[in-house]
Amino acid sequence: MPRSHIHRYRVAFVDCDPAQIVHFSNYFRWFDTASREFFTACGVPSWRDTERDSGIIGTPLVDAQASFRNPATYGEDLDIESWVEAWNTKSFVMRHVARRGDTVIAEGREVRVFAVREAGDPTRIRAVPIPAAWRALCE
User: Fold this and answer.
1) pLDDT tens for each residue of 89-103
2) Which of 3, 101, 116, 118 yields a CA-CA distance of 20 to 30 A from 76?
3) Residue 32 appears among annotated catalytic residues
4) How much is the pTM?
């Protein structure tokens, strides 16, 4: 298995819907946080530093999917394991598995790109080739 990182999260009451189970949208937030934490654990600099040094502003999503296997509720500790499943020239696929102990709660798949701001219009971004040094840190 490729290099992975585990992000622990304790479910808060505010994360739950009226049935007292985690609202599905929270998993996407947690997967996003786990993605950044993965890169930090691998030694990739903060996005503020990468923007200053190379223009790369981060790894925006271009596709996201999730499957919900079992419910979770407030007070429970979830371990979200994240890894890069596939590297392409300008995009990569991240996988996430949220577990409560040995029980799989949710699984996620994200397609992300490394992005820079457009030179003539800083409100627009574009994908750039994945930096080889950062990929090597994460493999």
Assistant:
1) 999 999 999 999 999
2) 3
3) no
4) 0.92
